[in-house]
Amino acid sequence: MPPRRFTRFAAFDWSGRAIARPPGITLAECSTGDAAPILIAPDRGWSRPAALDWLLAQAEAKTDLLVGIDFSPALPHADEGAYFPDWSETPSDARGLWALVDQLCAAEPHLSASTFTNHTETARHFRHRAGGMTSVGDRFEGSMGRLRVVERRCRALKLGNAVSCFNLIGASQVGKSSLTGMRLLHALAGRVPIWPFDAVPAHGPLIVEIYTTIAARAAGLTGSRTKLRDGPTLDTALPNLDTKPHTTLARYDDHATDALLSAAWLRHVSQDATLWTPAGLDQALAATEGWTFGIP
Q1: Residues 6+ apart with CB under 8 A from 242
Q2: What is the DSSP letter of 23?
Q3: 261 Cβ contact list (under 8 Å, min separation 6)
Q4: Would you call 253 helix, strand, or coil by DSSP?
Q5: Disulfide-capable partner of 240 in 46, 57, 211, 220 (CB 3.0 to 4.6 Å)?
Q6: For residues 210 and 262, is the Cβ–Cβ distance under 8 A?
Q7: Which letter does DSSP use for residue 123 in this model?
Q8: Helices 94-104, 175-188: crossing angle, 10 deg rounding
Q9: How many CB atoms lie within 10 A of CB 274?
Q10: Helix, strand or coil, per DSSP, at residue 208
Q11: One pLDDT digit (tens) per residue for the chain, 296 residues
Q12: Strand duo 65-69 + 8-13: pairing
């Protein structure tokens, strides 16, 4: 049996850009039923602090909300037994990692996290750009970088090409958004539970990590078509998630469609018990690496 039922479903497409209001941050929401999700946006667009305030408001209201956020909540740990092997100050679990990211980036506004990779020890593990040049740390592994257990499983099941958070270069990199996401999770300070680091509460909101490609593929999109930017294609995908056509948007981009599809997908699969008890997820991973909801 799934752990509980929810009445509302939301999805954040996320961004790691070090500006006040990254245009990539997009939120879509829907309720039970089959109506299409709608976009929710402040007049000036989303900031990361505004997203934090929105989540805290859901906690205050005890909203029965399942919200997916498209970033990795932790770095790889299981492969080496540490986030940063051979460093005496490496955190022992995800909450310690969130605190470390927040501590090293405390001077940055907007919950940005650009300076995290400048630390003497952490920089050794990342591939990033510095001064217009590519910098590859001596502890960066292989051509791709280290992967979490769930990222390797995602690739093995051909659900998507999950990439390493230690790579900060290229259009597909997710490290920057994930590091800013860790600052968000630290700021929540347990006021909104995060699966699987926290137990699923009987009431109120719950956050899960999502990978928007999984939602797109569940909606029937394949290959490079998992990113769509027009209304007609969106309306061919939504029925596969038992969702009616959407209300026409003023502007289409893949951030908006990712959020809309992901919110509909969360509603569609939230009662699938297999997704709440994935193979390979144990207590150690639940404390250190977490898991992407939707990967069985």
Answers
A1: 34, 268
A2: T
A3: 212, 215, 216, 219, 234, 237, 238, 241
A4: coil
A5: 220
A6: yes
A7: G
A8: 100
A9: 10
A10: strand
A11: 789 999 999 999 999 999 999 999 999 999 999 999 999 999 899 999 999 999 999 999 999 999 999 999 999 999 999 999 999 999 999 999 999 999 999 999 999 999 999 999 999 999 988 777 788 999 999 889 999 999 999 999 999 999 999 999 987 889 999 999 999 999 999 999 999 999 999 999 999 999 999 999 999 988 766 788 899 999 999 999 999 999 999 899 999 999 999 999 999 999 999 999 999 999 999 999 999 999 99
A12: parallel
Domains in the chain: boundaries? 8-72+191-276, 94-186
pTM above 0.70, yes or no: yes
Q: Mind spelling out the 3-state secondary structure of 85-103?
A: CCCCCCCCCHHHHHHHHHH
Which amino acid is it at 190?
G
In this structure, the number of other CB atoms found within 10 A of the CB of residue 129 comes to 10
CB 203 within 8 A of CB 226: no
Q: Say how many CA atoms lie within 13 Å of 154 toward its Cβ.
A: 22
DSSP H/E element including 13:
strand 8-13
Cβ neighbors of 134 (< 8 A, separation 6 or more) are 127, 128, 169
Interatomic CA distance for residues 27 and 296, integer angstroms: 25
Query: Helix count (H) and strand count (E) of the chain?
Result: 9, 7
- Note the helical H segments in the chain: 48-61, 94-104, 149-156, 175-188, 212-218, 231-237, 254-269, 273-276, 283-288
The C-alpha atoms of residue 289 and residue 121 are separated, in whole angstroms, by 20
